[in-house]
Amino acid sequence: MSDINTAMIEKYRSSFLKEVEANVEEGEWVKMCMQCGVCSGSCPLGKHWEHPPQEIFMMIRAGKREDVLSSDSMWMCTSCYNCIARCPRGLPITHIMHGLAVYSKRLGLTPKKQPTADFSQIFWDNLMKKGRVNELKLGLSMYFKDGFGQGIKNAMANQKLGQNMMKAKRMNAMEIFGGHSVKDLSGFQKIIKKAQEIEEGNVKDFK
Amino acid sequence: MTEVIATNETILVVGGGISGMTAALEAAETGKQVVLVEKRPYVGGRVTQLYKYFPKLCFPTCGLEINQRRAKMNPNLNIISMAEVTDIKGEAGNYTATVKISPRYVNENCTACGDCGKAVEAEFDDEYNYGMGKRKGAYLPHRMAHPQRYILDPAIIGTDDAQKAKDACKVNAIDLDMQEEVIEFKAGAVVWATGWRPYDANKIQPYGYDRIANVITSVEFERMADPNGPTGGKLTRPSDGKEVQSVAFIQCAGSRDKNHLLHCSRICCMASLKQATYPADDVPITIYYIDIRAIDRFEEFYQKVKAKENVKFIKSKVASIVENKENGNPTLHGVDTEGYNRYADEHDLVVLAVGMEPSVDKASFPVEITINEEGFIEPAPENGGVFAAGCSSDALDVNRAVQHATGAALRAIQVVNRVAATEG
């Protein structure tokens, strides 16, 4: 490519686009979007999104850092992969959405009370304790995340489901006392810690 | 038996569409011997199925008539119709071509009077009209068909219909004993002009071409607009035959899409802009597009259509089409790019501006040739004396295909001139 072309490309790569390319999983694909809109139209939850994917990509290129990273849009993705299947340019849109969610979480810009973000945090904390997901505790944490009163209401509403799961041996009431863990719990926690260190080390500073 | 007199100084043209005809005529008119092999029973190819040309909105029949007249008058040009090249061996200046000729069951005596067509009863889907409408088992493919000669559908051979056709013929033109022939002849150079075919709209699953009656392709819409077409020039809905009250065009239906055709088919933007002028001025028309590619001097035509009050442009690739079961209207779903508005628009008729793909599959070329990722022929030195013309080389409009074919003819002439120089 000629120097002038390279210069023009650089001119239109906003600093936020560069940040996304460096720090967001699959972020280097964002510049490939041709704004056809097939992803937004194909998304089954699309109408609940603040900004559909195609708009998110445009906002990234326009350098709207705060608006993108504090948006709840990427948290709405259910990984149905409709967008990836249909994107004419082959952008891994689902993965980019998850990448953006992870990055906004890392920077602490996730909108408050975002249900998917809340669930993810509860799931992660639960998993880290024993190296396994304790389903009983996970369920209870979800029921009570919005306060004690709401928790009781949620538990009552799902009473039948819980009982059936116990009957079918899909859930064990004894798990409430600690619960069982993976064989080498401290080893597991070390692995995760190391992985987190490596990830942290790869994040480039943009602010 | 079909006789072909050919030498190493003969040019073989494969495909008799607008590009093949152009290359063949240009070469023949310089005095070269040319054999044109055409798969269909007539020359002119897909251009014969067009109602109007863009941007002048004139009729392709006009240029077709001139070309057919040139062909009839030129003793250097030998047209073999209903024939396919199955093999080409050798190298530049010395090729041997194998050609399979399907039986037409009608000989040169035919005056195209039409008596056989009236006599037979069986009807078939009319391929000339992309399966819209029917034709008889003895038929003339279209009014201007060259050669102007009837054909018997092979499916009626051995039935009463075949005998009825034979009995009806006053000039003894029907020969029910005609057999498939395989012939071989020499050629010094080959012009490969096998053209294009519309991308199979059934493969674009979310658009429901296979399940929604009122979703049609641009080539079908073109046939509908033709007064000689299946609807007599009326733009009607396939579901109920009512004249359309609103039309939507969907651009890039299969083009510029890694799930379908990688390339931009180049003609579809202009084709839809042209087709937007077909309905009456009070019929609302909506064109859904990614970006309008009305290349170079066509920009003026785009502006002209844009200025029409009944034509609206929505910048969006439609995500899916769902049928309204009550009235048969296709409902288009998507999000536009100018404002990110979610829409669910109902239209009477939806036209998919389908892309162009090469009509010969990568694997079925009977000659060694360099093909690119999209299936088009690359101008590579390894191709020897085989030169692509028109849409076998790229997605081109008629104007560019003709220019390209003229260039290919010159290349072929250079090869046979070299042969003449060494042999003479």
How much β-strand is present in the residues of chain B? 15-25%
The overall average pLDDT of chain B, rounded, is 96
User: What class, by secondary structure content of chain A?
Assistant: mainly alpha
Indicate the overall shape of chain A: elongated
Named CATH architecture of the largest domain in chain B: 3-Layer(bba) Sandwich
Low-confidence stretches of chain A: none
CATH topology of the largest domain in chain B: FAD/NAD(P)-binding domain
- What's the gyration radius of chain B in Å? 23 Å
Q: What is the ordering of alpha helices and beta strands of chain B?
A: EHEHEEEHEEEEHEEEEHEHEHEEEEEEEH
Tell me the total number of β-strands of chain B.
22
The helix-and-strand class of chain B reads alpha/beta
Assign a percent range to the helix content of chain B: 10-25%
- CA-CA gap between termini of chain B: 31 Å
- The CATH class label of the largest domain in chain A is Mainly Alpha
Count of helices of chain B?
A: 8
For the biggest sheet of chain A, the summary is:
none
CATH superfamily of the largest domain in chain A: Alpha-helical ferredoxin
User: What is the number of independent domains of chain A?
Assistant: 2
Give an overview in words.
- The complex is a heterodimer of chains A (207) and B (424).
- Chain A is an all-alpha fold.
- Chain A has two domains: 3-106, Orthogonal Bundle (Fumarate Reductase Iron-sulfur Protein, Chain B, domain 2), CATH 1.10.1060.10; 115-202, no CATH class.
- Chain A has helices spanning 3-12, 15-23, 38-42, 53-61, 65-69, 82-86, 93-106, 115-130, 135-143, 148-157, 159-167, 185-202.
- The radius of gyration of chain A is 21 Å and the shape is elongated.
- Chain B has 424 residues and is an alpha/beta fold.
- Chain B has three domains: 10-102 and 180-195 and 359-423, FAD/NAD(P)-binding domain; 115-168, no CATH class; 199-355, FAD/NAD(P)-binding domain (3-Layer(bba) Sandwich), CATH 3.50.50.60.
- Chain B is 21% helix and 24% strand.
- Chain B is built from eight helices and 22 strands.
- Chain B has helices at 18-29, 60-73, 115-119, 160-168, 218-225, 268-275, 299-306, 398-423, and strands spanning 10-14, 33-37, 77-80, 83-91, 94-101, 123-125, 134-136, 138-139, 151-152, 181-187, 189-192, 196-198, 215-217, 247-253, 285-289, 311-315, 320-323, 330-335, 342-346, 349-354, 356-358, 386-388.
- In chain B, strands 3-2-1-11-22 form a five-stranded parallel beta sheet, covered by helices on one side. Chain B has a five-stranded parallel beta sheet with strand order 13-20-14-15-16.
- In chain B, strand 4 (83-91) and strand 5 form a beta hairpin.
- The longest helix of chain B is centred in the last third of the chain and has 26 residues, at 398-423.
- The radius of gyration of chain B is 23 Å and the shape is globular.
- The two termini of chain B are 31 Å apart.
- The mean pLDDT of chain B is 96.
